[in-house]
């Protein structure tokens, strides 16, 4: 008997590819996809109630269309996944859903009604270092109003965020926090960070403040100063501000207050925003931002949205520089327990703001715009950990499996499958090469409510066996021996082929 060649075996093993998922990406299976679909459907209904219409943009855009605030055209893979087309133009996977919207509006400006209310849902891609809860591909769901310069549009966005979270079953467990980048610009002016030459430093400051919830005051203080080393040992260079400038910014973003439930809310807000005026000093931009923020609060209050749902908060800045006015975040306010038994605070699950300059990059005249984005995966995880009934839905049965006991007559089994499908019943023909016992195990793993069995005797009699797998599993627990099992054949019955569809429907109706 010839011996196997060990070198040949090693070569074959070496040529086998290792199955592995790229870092920062995830696979999702049927149950999670169905549950997320139910969540997205609820969001869609909320958006449409406000008059928003659906829009879909492609995954790929010209890199230059994504904006100077996202990739660096001299380093086209910085932050985004990019490649060159056959004409040597740089293309990138979309970084978010806002830049593609800006391009779409500018390209079809004369054909769309303005103000233009649209919503989009889809995957976006970040060429960044992955980590816990930080992915390179994730889904966003956006709603935007383009062509409305009034802060009434910003108030509408805040109310839409609140109502959407209400419909997702999060009543009393969230708050929409609102700020205005003009106020922050006023603070920047007050500490000497105005002018084009300070743009990079201002962006570093904004991104540092945006991490307040995650890093705390001390972590932000380091990022406003010389810099900070994270848990992995990586060092992030800071904004390099002087100590007095750092303390002024921290005093502003840390200021929190709430109106007395029994008191005059409007009087409170007059006093609240009056204190902000002291921070921005004589900055006209800062005072304009305070007035806009005050107007948003008045509009929300008039529509019945109290401080418990929508409130002004100076800690909200949003990290992207393209925001030009009001900015907002939806924060979950409750702790949840993860799989390791740890208490986790989710924080922000959605956010956005006004970006009046983004569409204008493609046109001679400025085009006002405002909107927000939901982090779908993050919100979905929060709903999972809270045991949201929205994600449970109605149990969906697996397909009815038609077993194949005689492969020479496979056309007869295919005919049975076709009858079930014509009746609108999910069904599949077993396509493997195993025997009956393995086929039954396969049907169980598929979550099948029942299996169709037809041997030669049943075929000659024009009958099939319908095995109710759910009822059979229940009965199996009460049967002690194999002989008893064979004698009882629980939940299995014979029917004429013409009655098969009706009897299968009865099984489905009983369990679902």
UniProtKB/TrEMBL annotation:
Entry EC no(s): 6.1.1.21
Enzyme class: ligase
Entry keyword Cell cycle: no
GO terms classed as biological process: histidyl-tRNA aminoacylation
Ligase as UniProt keyword: yes
Domain (Aminoacyl-transfer RNA synthetases class-II family profile) ranges: 38-397
Binding site for L-histidine: 96-98, 126, 140, 144, 318, 322-323
Subcellular location: Cytoplasm
Molecular function terms from GO: ATP binding; histidine-tRNA ligase activity
Transmembrane segment boundaries: none
A Gene Ontology cellular-component term: cytoplasm
Record PROSITE patterns: AA_TRNA_LIGASE_II
Pfam families, sorted: HGTP_anticodon, tRNA-synt_His
Domain of life, source organism: Bacteria
Catalytic function, reaction form: tRNA(His) + L-histidine + ATP = L-histidyl-tRNA(His) + AMP + diphosphate + H(+)
Chief localization: cytoplasm
Keyword terms of this UniProt record: Aminoacyl-tRNA synthetase, ATP-binding, Cytoplasm, Ligase, Nucleotide-binding, Protein biosynthesis
Cross-referenced InterPro entries: aa-tRNA-synth_II, aa-tRNA-synth_II/BPL/LPL, Anticodon-bd, Anticodon-bd_dom_sf, His-tRNA-ligase, HisRS-like_core, HisRS/HisZ, HisRS_anticodon
Quaternary assembly: Homodimer.
Family the entry assigns: Belongs to the class-II aminoacyl-tRNA synthetase family.
Protein name: Histidine--tRNA ligase
Organism (species): Methylobacterium bullatum
Gene: hisS
């Amino acid at each position: 008997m010839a011996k196997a060649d060990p070198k040949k075996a090693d070569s074959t093993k070496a040529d086998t590819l290792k199955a592995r998922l790229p870092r920062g990406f995830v696979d999702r299976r049927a149950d999670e996809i169905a549950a997320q679909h139910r969540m997205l459907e609820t969001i869609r209904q909320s958006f449409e109630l406000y008059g928003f219409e659906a829009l879909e943009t492609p995954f790929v855009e010209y890199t230059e269309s994504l904006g100077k605030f996202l990739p660096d055209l001299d380093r086209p893979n910085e932050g985004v996944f990019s490649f060159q087309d056959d004409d040597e133009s740089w293309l990138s996977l979309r970084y978010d859903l806002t830049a593609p919207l800006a391009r779409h509006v500018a390209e079809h400006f004369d054909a769309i009604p303005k103000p233009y209310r649209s919503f989009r849902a889809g995957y976006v891609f970040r060429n960044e270092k992955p980590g816990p809860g930080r992915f390179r591909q994730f889904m966003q769901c956006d709603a935007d109003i383009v062509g409305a310069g009034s802060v009434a549009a910003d108030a509408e966005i805040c109310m839409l965020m609140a109502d959407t979270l209400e419909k997702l079953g999060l009543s009393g467990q969230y708050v929409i926090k609102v700020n205005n980048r003009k106020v922050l610009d006023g603070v920047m002016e007050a500490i000497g960070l105005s002018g084009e030459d300070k743009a990079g430093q201002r962006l570093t400051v904004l991104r540092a403040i945006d991490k307040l919830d995650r890093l705390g005051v001390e972590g932000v203080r380091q990022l406003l100063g010389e810099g900070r080393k994270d848990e992995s040992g990586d060092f992030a260079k800071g904004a390099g501000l002087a100590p007095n400038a750092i303390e002024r910014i921290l005093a502003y973003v840390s200021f929190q207050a709430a109106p007395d439930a029994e008191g005059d809310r409007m009087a409170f807000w007059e006093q609240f925003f009056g204190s902000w005026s002291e921070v921005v000093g004589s900055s006209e931009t800062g005072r304009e931002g305070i007035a806009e923020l005050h107007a948003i609060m008045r509009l929300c209050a008039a529509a019945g949205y109290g401080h418990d749902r929508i409130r002004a908060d100076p800690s909200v800045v949003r990290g992207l520089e393209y925001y030009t006015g009001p900015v907002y975040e939806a924060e979950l306010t409750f702790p949840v327990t993860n799989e390791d038994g740890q208490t986790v605070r989710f924080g922000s699950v959605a956010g956005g703001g006004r970006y009046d300059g983004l569409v204008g990059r493609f046109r001679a005249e400025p085009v006002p715009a405002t909107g927000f984005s939901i982090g779908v995966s993050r919100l979905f995880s929060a709903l999972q950990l809270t045991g949201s009934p929205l994600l449970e839905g109605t149990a969906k049965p697996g397909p009815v499996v038609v077993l194949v006991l005689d492969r020479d007559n496979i056309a007869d089994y295919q005919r049975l499958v076709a009858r079930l499908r014509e009746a609108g019943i999910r069904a599949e023909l077993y396509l493997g090469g195993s025997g009956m016992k393995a086929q039954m195990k396969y049907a169980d793993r598929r979550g099948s409510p029942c299996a169709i069995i037809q041997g030669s005797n049943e075929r000659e009699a024009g009958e099939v066996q319908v095995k109710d797998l759910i009822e059979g599993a229940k009965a199996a627990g009460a049967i002690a021996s194999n002989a008893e099992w064979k004698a009882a054949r629980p939940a299995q019955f014979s029917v004429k082929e013409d009655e098969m569809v009706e009897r299968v429907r009865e099984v489905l109706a009983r369990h679902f």
